[in-house]
């Protein structure tokens, strides 16, 4: 899935684009919906799979509104 399909604020999408991120990883896709609903997430995944982005993007989106 593409980050642009998530409905994030333009500033977040611009930052992702500047860092070269366009496609989500499975952990990012799954965690996003849970976090945006206000629920906590516990996730285990290999290093480099995008766990940090999976946590921070939805939270930044909520702060941006």
Structural class: mainly alpha
Number of helices: 3
**What number is the mean pLDDT?**
90
Q: What is the total tally of β strands?
A: 0
Tell me the fraction of residues in β-strands, as a range.
under 5%
Termini gap:
23 Å
The stretches of 5 or more residues where confidence is low (pLDDT under 50) are none
Rg estimate, integer Å: 11 Å
Helix content: 40-55%
**Biggest beta sheet attributes:** none
Give the overall silhouette.
Answer: globular
Listing every helix as H and every strand as E from the N terminus to the C terminus, the arrangement reads HHH
What does this 3D model show about the protein?
The protein is mostly helical. 52% of the residues lie in helices and 0% in strands. The protein has three helices and no strands. It has helices at 10-18, 26-36, 51-64. Helix 2 packs parallel to helix 3 (51-64). The termini are far apart.
């Amino acid at each position: 899935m593409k980050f642009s399909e998530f409905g994030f604020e333009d500033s977040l999408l611009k930052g992702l684009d500047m860092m070269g991120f366009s496609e989500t990883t499975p952990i990012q896709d799954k965690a996003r919906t849970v976090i945006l609903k206000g629920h906590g997430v516990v996730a285990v995944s290999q290093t480099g799979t995008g766990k940090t982005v999976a946590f921070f993007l939805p939270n930044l989106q909520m702060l941006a509104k």
